[in-house]
Amino acid sequence: MKTDIEIAQSISLPPIATIAEAAGIPEQALEPYGSHKAKVDPRMLPDRPDGKLILVTAITPTAAGEGKTTTTIGLADGLAKIGKSVVGALREPSLGPVFGIKGGAAGGGYAQVVPMEDINLHFTGDFHAVGAANNLLAAMVDNHIYHGNPLGIDPGRIAWRRCVDMNDRQLRFVVDGLGGRVNGTPREDGYDITVASEVMAVLCLASDIADLKQRLSRIIVGYTYDEKPVTAGDLKAQGAMAALLKDAMKPNLVQTLEGTPFFVHGGPFANIAHGCNSVVATRAALKLADYVVTEAGFGADLGAEKFLDIKCRYAGLQPSAVVVVATVRALKLHGGVQKTELSKPDVEALKRGIPNLIRHASNIKEVFGLPVVVAVNRFPTDTEEELQAVIDACRTLDVRVALSEVWGRGGEGGIELAEEVSRLCEQPSEFRFCYDLDEPIEQKLRKIVQRIYGGADVAFTGPAEKQAASIRALGLEHLPVCVAKTQYSFSDDPQKLGAPEGFNVTVRQLRVSAGAGFIVALTGDIMTMPGLPKVPAAESIDVGDDGLIRGLF
User: Fold this and answer.
1) 215 in catalytic set
2) Do the beta carbons of residue 321 and residue 371 sit within 8 Å?
3) Exposure check for the chain: N or C terminus, fewer CB within 10 A?
4) Over the range 418-442, which residues count as b (16 or more CB within 10 Å of their CB) and which as e?
5) Of the listed 106, 270, 300, 361, which one is catalytic?
6) Strands 162-164 and 191-193
7) From 298, 460, 490, 553, the catalytic residue
8) Confidence of residue 102 (pLDDT cuts 50, 70, 90)
């Protein structure tokens, strides 16, 4: 069986200019980066009515895998197969997971965006630009303190950390500025992974360069000795940061193995931020096609909720349909089956795990008021009895199930799903948000916990209560909330699989991402700098004398 990279390298691709022309992108809007990828200037795209937006999300992720990105790509190819005008929109992958736990963000099998090696590695340099802008701001903070500190920044209350796009636990907590006065002010510090930087979230929510600069200027970098916030605007950093991000603001155009155009742009961390591709890329896609397929990170309780309550709210977007991806294997794991036993038929375990899927699908339909279809990413070991159990369970919600075989068959394996999605896009809907912006922070979080997670209530630690009061005093309580919690459970305990009930979610810290425009509620043990596993994927990645990369998935 061929690996993903072997499949990708076996396909002869048309030039990206050909893909752009077929998508209706004017030649003057295209900035090629080699033969098979390009940046697109969204200001030069045709002004036409928006197409229909389709969101792909998933059940609570497990070690068994769900295939959300693969389904997103295969669905787009499936829509093209049935004659629809379609463009996709995905996040860019971070180097951290690529070299850490094996897994990228370009799909798999015969449902991939290509060139997958470029997409999974440096691509067009967007992440490097984000890291440079983040670290420029960090340097300007410390430089300001070194040169007399006229703003009165308290070195003990600096909130802005440096970043690097690599899993490196050694950098989580550091002491810097050592070596005497000429080398800075000694203080405790730390690094985040680049995708967790607020600059990444700002890039992905900004509508244009002017909005980008305004958002950058609002970033809070720390506090003065008398508790007043200090912003990037106070340091006059936003102009230079925007200059570094000028090209990174333009979405990247690539294609699937079947020639369907895709924008791959931006990649905010799906825990600490909103976890979906840029507003600019989504809007560009909507101007080019009748159908736009996009995805949100992790399960629907994290990715879809943030996509709908944060991104759609800011960008004025409204999905026409939502796909919830599941696998029989993952549902059996939620039902208590060990990973090594997932290939064995077990209808009873599957039925114990199905409530996880039902809660996600019900949330989309009942809380957000959107049409939904369940896509079962089919494995050869799935039995007809197991598949029927999923279909029967979803029927109780009046939700259809479509079998997806896009990994092995590409767009041909996504036709059933594509036909159901195109049908749903014509159905009436009453899109609504989970909470109102004028509600108190505590009430917004309570609604998410009770309506989306199925929990009993939200609890705040002492520090979190003080931070909530501080946010109110700053006049920022009106911002949407972005919950940073484990992706492995509806609760804040990764061991609670399935669809737990009656739990409380404890908020231990609240942070303001004033530039991005949301309040981050940290729960559990969420880290903003992951570490490499015992055997990192990097050990298997190599490049041959022929220049071809090997071992990359």
Assistant:
1) no
2) yes
3) N
4) bbbbbebbeeebeeebbbeeeeebb
5) 270
6) parallel
7) 298
8) low
- Dump pLDDT digits (tens) for 398-443: 999 999 999 999 999 999 999 999 999 999 999 999 999 999 999 9
What distance in Å separates the CA atoms of residue 295 and residue 107, rounded to the nearest whole number? Answer: 12
pLDDT in tens, 177-201: 999 989 998 999 999 999 999 999 9
71 CB contacts (<8 Å, ≥6 apart)?
A: 56, 111, 323, 325, 375, 377, 404, 406, 414, 417
Confirm whether 553 is a catalytic residue: no
* pLDDT of amino acid 103: 63
Per-residue pLDDT, averaged over 216-223, amounts to: 98
361 pLDDT band (50/70/90 cuts)? very high
What the block records as the tokens of 546 is: 């022929």
- One of 407, 460, 503, 553 is an active-site residue; which one? 407
Known catalytic membership, residue 68: yes
Known catalytic residue at 534: no
Catalytic residue, candidates 123, 262, 379, 503: 379
Give yes or no: 213 in active site.
no
Q: Six-digit token pair at 360? A: 């996600």
The single-letter code of the amino acid at 250 is K
> Catalytic: 102?
yes
Over the range 23-53, which residues count as b (16 or more CB within 10 Å of their CB) and which as e?
bbbeeebbeebeebbbbbbbeebeeeebbbb
CA nearest neighbour of 52 among 341, 317, 388, 412: 317
* Token pair for 332: 């059996």
